[in-house]
Amino acid sequence: MDTLTHIVLGACIGEAIAGRQLGKKALFIGAFANSIPDLDFFASFWLPTTADLLAHRGFTHSFLFVALITPLLAWVSTSIQGKNGISFKKWCIFWGVEIFLHLFIDSFNAYGTGLFEPFYHYRVSFNSMFVADPLYSMWLAFAFIALLILKRSSPYRRIWMMVGLGISTLYFILGICFKLSTDGIVSENLKSKHLNYSRFFSTPTPLNNLLWYIVAETDSGYYIGYKSVLEHNREIDFHFARKNDSLLQNPCNKRDLNNLVRFSNGYHTAEMWQDTLVFNDLRFGEIAGWSEKNPRFVFYYFLQQPDNNKLLVQRGRFANWNKQTFFTFLNRINGKIPGK
């Protein structure tokens, strides 16, 4: 999830676990604790781009990391507070819950989380939340602001904390329900259209959990479509994207290609942009794909120009968005398909 979400979630969890003992300090310690796994961003200062993709949400997002860092941070906290502070056991609960929840929630969006590193490199992606969803984060943010304003002795602090965590959790669960429903409709469509496929995934489009992006893999490419939970029609219109694996037979940098294939979990295509070889990771969606025909993918990597791949994950996320694009997006969420 995005940094702001981890901060406000961590603050509310900190209030829930240790607000009575620490007061408002619990908010700030909680915000820091929930952000600790993302300290892996420092790796980007010295790692090549494709290696950094795998380093992020790698070891610092693993169960082993939680097991190692929790008692260490609890010991440091106990040592700083002294005998009159929170017990070592309570600090273990505080740090352990905060860091584990960071890993847990990150596992529900498309990037993938290395929960089993360094023993197993599989990256967990449940694909039920977009990396930044204001309808999830806003309730936690409101609660955080209220907790900052209210006095330590105020009886309303507990209420605000519970409201923030409660509504955001309900929204989180709703996203899982939407995904299960969407996956059922996708399976039904692929079967009724007699489309042979080996696997598929669905994941939310930007900033919501109502419009879903769908990719079904075949030997030669992918069927791609969109489905809103607000649509009455259960039919999904698919378009096809070819893999073009032959373009990757003789890469100029085999290390980069291997890292990208591993990172994409095999959901990738290749194409030529004039004389430039491009690797696409399909998991991050298409640029305004809900309204445009044959759009480019959000995640694209210039294999022959590694130095031109800055802000790799972010650069295509909202590319080509404008007022018209935004309102078309809202209409598509509402079930209105362009051209129909």
Describe the fold and architecture:
By secondary structure, the chain is α+β, with helices and mostly antiparallel strands. The protein has 9 helices and 7 strands. Strands 1-2-3-4 form a 4-stranded antiparallel sheet, with helices on one face. The longest helix has 37 residues, at 156-192. The model has no long low-confidence stretch (mean pLDDT 94).
Spell out the blueprint of helices and strands:
Elements: H1 3-22, H2 25-35, H3 49-55, H4 63-81, H5 88-106, H6 134-149, H7 156-192, E1 199-204, E2 211-217, E3 221-228, E4 239-242, H8 254-263, E5 268-273, E6 276-286, E7 297-302, H9 323-333
Antiparallel strand pairs: 1-2, 2-3, 3-4, 5-6, 6-7
Could you give a quick summary of the protein structure above?
This protein is an alpha+beta fold and 340 residues long. It is built from nine helices and seven strands. The strands form two sheets. Strands 1-2-3-4 form a four-stranded antiparallel sheet, with helices on one face. It has a three-stranded antiparallel sheet with strand order 5-6-7, covered by helices on one side.
Q: Rounded to an integer, what's the Rg over CA atoms?
A: 22 Å
How are strands sequenced across the largest beta sheet?
Answer: 1-2-3-4
Q: Detail the poorly predicted runs.
A: none
Helix content: 40-55%
Distance between the termini: 34 Å
Structural class, please? alpha+beta
Give the strand content: 5-15%
| Form type | globular
